[in-house]
């Protein structure tokens, strides 16, 4: 849904898109957020006829990567953050595109962003008064929400590594694969987002105040730390996957060894019983009443002797 926020003096309020398009006088600061799937986005962009064509095209593009590009009198900033709903499909991080210029910001998103509601409350509370405040607020909210998600990936690996005996190798390998895929997806956007925030914080624009630059640099530093942690998670996941593969191979070898020991124990017994079970004349003690229990006793003694030999030679260890 498209929304328009105006800051006029010490007060901020929200108006409809129709009222905004009908205004003839610009407010000291306005923020227009448009839904990319609606025609509102093009209607808002058409109001800014001085926007470069390249900025307009990038603002409405569906596939984006975090970046910061200075164009004419403004800046195009693409950021990525967590989605507002768990049903989001496609990329794990939702994008928001912002065109910032003096006294105005136009943002477009195709999926709801989790940071949208906190930033909206800051805007209506009068804490956001210029484009620099708005972009810095988005950067801070996105990094604050992503930080625990990235830390949770590392904690998940710690739990898997410390509880390998409680969970089966198959389940642990599946969880490790999920963590590694998530870390790779996050890092694909967080690493360039750090560069975009650093470039914006160093940009020579009149609507960026010193405190805005400080907040942007702080968000960039957090992105750098998260990118390093995600790289570590990716490498640890690969090592954990190899360890789990080795553990599974070791378990399979141990099971094969047990089967081999059982087969070796019963091999001479099978030979003996097969020899005595031949339907031919001349089998000794065939008509003696104690012959059956005698053969059973011999088989038990042979099994015990072979088993004792395996135990003495520590085959099962």
Automatic annotation (TrEMBL):
Q: Does the keyword Transport apply?
A: yes
- Which compartment or compartments is the protein found in? Cell membrane
Q: What is this protein called?
A: Magnesium transporter CorA
Chief localization? membrane
This protein's source sits in the domain of life called Bacteria
Q: Which residues cross the membrane?
A: 256-278, 290-312
Task: Please spell out the taxonomic lineage of the organism that makes this protein.
Answer: Bacteria, Pseudomonadati, Pseudomonadota, Alphaproteobacteria, Sphingomonadales
Instruction: Give the GO molecular function terms.
Output: cobalt ion binding; cobalt ion transmembrane transporter activity; magnesium ion binding; magnesium ion transmembrane transporter activity
Q: Which Pfam families match?
A: CorA
Q: Which UniProt keywords apply?
A: Cell inner membrane, Cell membrane, Coiled coil, Ion transport, Membrane, Transmembrane, Transmembrane helix, Transport, Zinc
- GO cellular component term of the entry, any: plasma membrane
Family classification: Belongs to the CorA metal ion transporter (MIT) (TC 1.A.35) family.
**Coiled-coil ranges from the UniProt annotation:** 216-250
Source organism (scientific name): Sphingobium chungbukense
Q: How does it sit in the membrane?
A: Multi-pass membrane protein
């Amino acid at each position: 849904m498209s929304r328009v926020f105006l800051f006029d003096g010490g007060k901020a309020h929200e108006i409809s898109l129709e009222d905004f398009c009908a205004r003839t006088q610009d407010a000291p600061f306005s923020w227009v957020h448009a839904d990319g799937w609606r025609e509102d986005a093009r209607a808002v962009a058409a109001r800014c006829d001085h926007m470069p064509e390249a900025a307009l095209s990038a603002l409405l593009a569906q596939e984006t990567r975090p970046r910061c590009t200075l164009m004419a009198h403004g800046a195009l900033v693409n950021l990525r953050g967590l989605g507002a709903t768990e049903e989001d499909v496609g990329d794990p991080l939702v994008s928001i595109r912002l065109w910032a210029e003096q006294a105005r910001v136009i943002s477009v998103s195709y999926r709801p962003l989790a940071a949208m509601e906190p930033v909206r409350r800051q805007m209506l509370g009068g804490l956001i008064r210029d484009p620099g405040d708005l972009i810095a607020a988005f950067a801070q909210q996105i990094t604050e929400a992503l930080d625990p998600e990235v830390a949770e990936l590392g904690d998940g690996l710690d739990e898997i590594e410390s509880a390998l005996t409680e969970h089966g190798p198959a389940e642990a390998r599946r969880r490790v694969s999920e963590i590694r895929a998530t870390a790779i997806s996050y890092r694909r956007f967080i690493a360039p987002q750090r560069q975009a925030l650093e470039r914006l914080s160093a940009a020579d624009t009149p609507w960026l105040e010193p405190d805005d630059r400080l907040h942007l640099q702080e968000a960039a530093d957090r992105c750098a730390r998260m990118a390093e942690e995600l790289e570590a998670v990716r490498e640890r996941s690969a090592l954990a996957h190899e360890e789990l593969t080795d553990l599974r191979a070791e378990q399979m070898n141990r099971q094969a060894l047990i089967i081999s020991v059982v087969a070796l124990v019963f091999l001479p017994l099978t030979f003996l019983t097969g020899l005595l079970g031949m339907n031919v004349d001349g089998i000794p003690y065939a008509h003696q009443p104690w012959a059956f229990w005698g053969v059973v006793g011999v088989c038990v003694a042979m099994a015990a002797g072979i088993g004792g030999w395996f135990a003495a030679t520590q085959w099962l260890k």
